[in-house]
Model the fold of this input.
Amino acid sequence: MAGGGTGGHVMPLLAVAEELRRRGHEPHFVGTRSGFEARLVPARGFPIEYVEVSGFQGAGMQSKFRLLWQLPSSVLASLSLIGRLGFGACFSLGGYVAAPPVIASLLRGVPLVVMEPNAMPGLVNRVFGRYAKKALLGFEAARSHFAREAVELSGLPVREEFFGIGPRTRGAVFQVFVTGGSQGSQTINRAVRELWPLLAAQPGLRVKLVHQCGRREEEALREAFAESGFAGQFEYELSAFVDDMPAAFAAADLIICRAGAGTVGELMAAGRPAVLVPYPFAADDHQTRNAQAMVAAEAGMMLADRDCNGAALFRLLSESIENGAGLARMGANARALSRPGAAARAADILEELAA
Done:
């Protein structure tokens, strides 16, 4: 299981690994000590080997030289691991962490399966994905980067609870879930703060904001709202984290969020309309490509990070409230893009190739 660094890479790998383990196989991870995998993988009871490797895209010259120094030894370590444990297949989510085990697998003749969750594949999948026996994609737009005969639109592994979310019935209060991801988003947090006085000036709008802001800004936002005098003029719930994301999605009429592959996959599975604010510094600007794909399918709205402010959010909220039928159609279009069973499909393919 090759990949890591971010939760968006680790969580799909874990979903497939858990499916493989249920079938009696022994998934083994390769990652770094600094990525999310170092915490999440051992917590799920999977073995993990660590390699030293740094990012390349967007990195300074010092980091790039460090990668050139690290890569040969990390590939050798991965070759040694393959020799010791005799893996039947390599499953890669891409990212710089995946490069050493993917290179080693290709050198050893171990069948490679890549999963590309974004509309614009990352560098590792673009370079090595052409040698994959199978390329499992989340977006049709990524197809041209892989061998035609290897491509399959499988979707991204998403927790089953999201697929169980039913259509939302509008109530008297329009509920909006705002999330900037586990770390929060300074841009989105600032825009929500600018939104407060606009909502307070329109008490007839009946809006409830459920805002997941990340740990860094929670205290400052909580104090600012308490001092604003807006409490009681509209409903506002603030938290650093949300433990039950499926429940938060289920209760929302509209979601405001970034456009990472994991979040977009959850929107599709839940069938929820969203305002997507792509993170502008993501590698290859892949979040913008994800959001554009959703907009092209009339399954979401896109708001550029530079344009994300209170006035823009207020306009989109007002339009969404007025156009209930359009919002419901957007949610239905999002659900139509979802593909249940992605983890099971990946496990099927890995079993076939390993055999």
